[in-house]
Amino acid sequence: MIPHSPRQVRSDLDRDIEPLVVGGVRHGASAIPARADVVVVGGGPAGSSTAALLAKAGVDVVLLEKVKHPRNTVGESLIPHFWKFADKVGVSREIEQGGYLKKAGGITVWKGKIHQFSFEKFGYKRPALHVERDLFDDMVLRHAQASGARVFEETAVTRVDLADPAALKVHYDDRRGGSSNPGLLTCKYVVDASGHNVVLAKQLGSRVIVGRGQQEYMALWGYFEDARYVGADGKSYGPECLPGIKPVTFVVSYEDGWIWHIILREHTSVGLVINTSSIKGMKRPQYEAYFKRIVESTPYLRELLRTAKFKEGSIRFMHDYSYYLTEVCGEGWFCIGDAGGFVDPIFSHGVQAAFYNANVVSVLVKGSLDRPSRAQEYRRHFDRRVRQYYGFSRSLALGDFGGDGVDAGLVKALMKQMPPIELEMMLVASCISDRSTNFRNMAREAGVLGEFGDGFISGRHRYLPALEL
Prior knowledge:
Layout: H1 12-16, E1 35-41, H2 45-56, E2 61-64, E3 77-78, H3 82-89, H4 92-96, E4 101-103, E5 105-110, E6 113-117, E7 128-130, H5 133-146, E8 150-152, E9 155-161, E10 168-174, E11 181-192, H6 199-204, E12 207-209, E13 217-225, E14 229-230, E15 236-237, E16 248-254, E17 257-263, E18 268-275, H7 284-297, H8 301-304, E19 309-310, E20 316-318, E21 323-325, E22 329-330, E23 333-335, E24 341-342, H9 350-370, H10 375-398, H11 408-417, H12 420-430, H13 437-445, E25 462-464
Parallel strand pairs: 1-2, 1-11, 2-8, 5-16, 11-23
Antiparallel strand pairs: 3-7, 4-7, 5-6, 6-25, 9-10, 10-11, 12-21, 13-18, 13-19, 13-20, 14-15, 16-17, 17-18, 21-24, 22-23
Helix pairs in contact: 2-5, 2-9, 3-9, 9-10, 10-11
């Protein structure tokens, strides 16, 4: 739950990031070109949105995606903040027509305390969603194509040669048709939106795992059929009650971390965020047994899954999932979305971050192409924006342990500039877990916590006495 429009400074760049130029041309060639103005690496929401925005602005943009869409991925909970940026991308109508489940908010059970959260109480009129990410991401990628971006799937970027900033060289492996064909594409700018593959960060050695050697985390998830879900009233319902009775995103803590439960139209996503010290020494085949043992023994979750059927073979996992970059941009290149940093997914900020990053980088890349003399200024502005965004998110989600790599000055500056109702919403969100110390200390140091009362009690903040599952 990150505020709509983070701002460190008010400038012509801040103003420019709001309106985007529309126009551009459509390309239909199937051969990967030798040159382009911009190469976008990755076809998730961040890359696809960036490609769409740049193509509409008349930029010659090529997007290279290593797999064929639709493809399996996780991150099915979307908070309503993303609509503002989806509007700018021009994809909101397709999302509205996608028939995704509208959710009523969230309920968390953290160390026995039951917290209910509703976006409507903070003035949001457009819905939060539960989406099938394979369908959602494919839709945004097709929108980029329709907007004029040249999209090539099954094409993996292997290396980016940054030696000549005037002519960056993107090395790729074209795997279309089942064969492997190495190639080279020269461009003026590269936008890395490769997600957890972090192509540029790995190449530059700039990725830092949060909590390395202390509290390292991994995600482990799978899918169930015919699971019950939780409504905003704290009662459980069968899937036949959808979409009439809106679900919430349900989160419950357990001794080794926390668990999400997100019902979708055909199945339910259940995932564990685990302190890796608790599964040290386990091999891959043991992950599924651990997963099943935890979901069957965790209060509330076991009731929701009692009559559900686990989809065999659906287990996925991700190591070292929480990280930041020491460098998010440089001469001719930018890292966005999960390729720019990843926090704990407890606040469902991933897709919003992708759309927001795309909005920022598209304006600054277009500006750099049009006004090369200001390119360095644009990079500095991007660096501030992205570090402020992820710093705020990391402080909110990870507390004291998430302070590594956070520029506290940028975070406190954002707190001072936020509308009071949005700041209140962030403080309410921080009550969900027991990780709020660092975030609240910064709010206190910024001089904004006192207006709510130092202990912070909000009329929009509600605890439930019990759940009826």
